[in-house]
UniProtKB/TrEMBL annotation:
Protein name in the entry: 3-O-methylgallate 3,4-dioxygenase
Domain Extradiol ring-cleavage dioxygenase class III enzyme subunit B: 78-300
Highest taxon listed in the record's lineage: Bacteria
Enzyme Commission no: 1.13.11.-
A Pfam family: LigB
Native organism: Sphingobium jiangsuense
Keywords: Dioxygenase, Oxidoreductase
Length: 330
């Protein structure tokens, strides 16, 4: 049977693929929309008032942001090194879509790609015109110049789908992407961790962002255990890595939740995370649900997490930004 030899959890946000000088380009977004935080909905100015005195002014100086970026890049370099050393044959990547390949007409709770080719093409002009502020400049971090086509692993994908169905998970099966671009959750792994030399992979998508069919924390944890069984039942001697791409808390950073989450991973106890309530897992913070299936898998395998770094990358006095996490199981 196939053997999982590595798990990697990594953030993937635009702040990781742009310079600190460019982080302010997202402030227009921060100030324009309501943000989920602590189970409520908050405007930017409300966050500034509520979180006054927490020292965010010191976190958003050029020097502090440059130091945060340097730590993130060092952790990513280490993940890339560890991945290369592990001699992986195939990867399973758990991530989410943000209306990149799906739209309101169809958003599956869980989906598995089982095609031969994964397309990662550059955005056409009409797509670029629809992007939120500050996103276009981040695209080279997810899509190589000229685009790319990556190899899938249909046999492993079908083993995962079959096991999931037997376990009561009615997953959507995709033989081709609905749109020719790859969601950035996956493009980041191909470019930054695999260094544009990706092994064949199986993208697994979780609807973390969009009501009304977001799977719960416990459902995601159990789904990870089903993925594990599917991999182990695959008739192959391949060395497998499993990635979780996304998180940690954003667009409003909450270090207390992040540290609880990382502690729960260490303790192999998802109960403390589930007890936070589903209202916490909205907006960008919902991407913790990409990590939760991996945490379930690693708990069953008995692998210990190595937390390479945790870096809350703030960009405003409201505490907006992206908390970055980098974890490896071997």
């Amino acid at each position: 049977m196939a053997r999982i030899v590595m798990g990697i959890g990594t953030s993937h946000g635009p702040m990781l693929v742009t310079s600190p000088e460019q982080w302010a380009s997202r402030l227009a977004f921060d100030k324009a929309v309501d943000h989920a935080w602590r189970g409520g909905s908050w405007r930017f100015e409300q966050l500034v008032a509520e979180r006054a005195g927490q020292g965010f002014d010191r976190q958003v100086t050029p020097e502090a942001m440059a130091a945060h970026q340097a730590r993130c890049q060092a952790a990513l370099d280490e993940l890339a090194r560890l991945f290369a050393e592990a001699r992986i044959d195939v990867a399973v990547i758990i991530g989410n879509d943000q209306m990149e390949i799906f739209d309101e007409r169809l958003i599956p709770a869980f989906a598995v790609f089982h095609g031969e080719a994964i397309t990662n093409y550059e955005f056409p002009p009409e797509r670029l015109a629809q992007l939120p502020p500050g996103i276009e400049q981040s695209l080279p971090g997810y899509i190589p110049s000229g685009g790319a086509v990556y190899a899938g692993q249909p046999d492993l994908a079908r083993a995962i789908i079959g096991r999931a169905m037997r376990d009561g998970f009615d997953v959507a099966a995709m033989k081709a992407l609905p749109k020719p671009e790859t969601p950035h959750a996956f493009g980041f792994v191909y470019r930054r961790i695999m260094r544009d030399r990706p092994v064949p992979s199986v993208p697994v998508l979780v609807n973390t962002f969009y009501p009304p069919n977001q799977p719960t924390v416990r459902r995601c944890y159990d789904f990870g255990k089903s993925i594990l069984r599917g991999i182990e039942e695959w008739d192959s001697d391949a060395r497998v890595a499993v990635f979780a791409s996304g998180g940690l808390t954003h667009f409003v950073i909450d270090e207390e939740i992040d540290r609880l989450f990382l502690d729960a991973i260490r303790a192999r106890d998802i109960g403390r995370v589930a007890d936070l309530g589903e209202a916490v897992f909205q907006d960008g913070t919902s991407e913790l649900k990409n990590w939760i299936p991996l945490a379930g898998m690693m708990a069953d395998l008995g692998l210990e997490p190595e937390i390479l770094d945790y870096v809350p990358c703030y960009r405003s006095e409201a505490g907006t930004g992206n908390a970055m996490g980098f974890v490896c199981w071997r």
